[in-house]
Amino acid sequence: MKIVRRVLFGFILVVLVLSVVPFALPLNEGGIDPAQLVNDPDGAFIQLQGVRVYYEDRGDPQAPAVVLIHGLFGSTLTWRYITDDVVAAGYRVIGFDRPGFGLSDKPAEFDYTLGNQADLTAQLLDALGVESAVIVGHSAGGNVAAAFALRHPQRVTRLVLVGAAVGFGGPPAFVGGLVTLPPVWRWGRVGLQAYFTRQNVEAVVRGFQADPSFLTEADYDGYWRAFQTPGWDVALLAITRDLPAETLGEADVRGIDAPTLLLWGTADTVTPLAQGERLLGWLPNAQLVSLPALGHQPFEEDPEAFVRALLAFLAA
Fold first, then answer.
1. What's the CATH fold of domain 38-315?
2. Would you say the pTM of this structure is higher than 0.70?
3. 152 counts as catalytic
4. Which of 17, 44, 138, 214 is deepest in the core (most CB within 10 A)?
5. pLDDT digit string, tens, across residues 96-125
6. Contacts of 233 (CB under 8 A, 6+ apart)
């Protein structure tokens, strides 16, 4: 009986420590106003669903629109090497930082589900006077692009999924509820702030490439700026909270009718080429183009090859 009491006492003590300790650990609650980090003359902010969303709009407003939706840790910066070439080919290019990323607001109370992110994309297009567009989604942004194609099919002229995480499934359902518990939420913030140092952010960015030697200090500066804004850690936890509520499976993907290009780096280790081949079997109107020896972000590693494949699909 003594052993049982000791084990029970020890368990209660551990729970109490884990519940109390994180609130004694310091957190960085500050940050730089995103407006001070804008360095692009085409950049602007717009208020959507009560949050300030950063976007960049380039090209002739009357030209066919191409909308770029970035993935995890991405932003408008993601597309910096390709936008000028796509504009020069006769397109209007619109990129935006999804809420929770880049220079957009990162509130905990925002609805980060795929459906709402797709609807916010539609609201941005409404505000910019765009009726329909080519929708390009990368990695986790591919899920938002696919959700947009399902919820707003009449607004999608073509769909492009780049190294897309569509069909991967999200975290288990219990994770969404678990992360909302105050001690878990606090531990999450402590852990995220401890891990995402400048050095580790650079390591993550390098890991997206098969050959990261092209990356410059300016590239790393661009990725680091999101981690200088208030609430970036809160947003990552809120995204983790909301993702289990809505994921796309095979049945959903089979409902996408838009002509679709799957663009994949053959050396992608984040979403391997086999994922693209699986999506090719699910999508009723798709083609797969592989880009040899490129990693998870081919638009950075070899922008010329990426733009060539993209424009060929749009012109076909």
1. Rossmann fold (3.40.50)
2. yes
3. no
4. 138
5. 999 999 999 999 999 999 999 999 999 999
6. 188, 189, 192, 193, 196
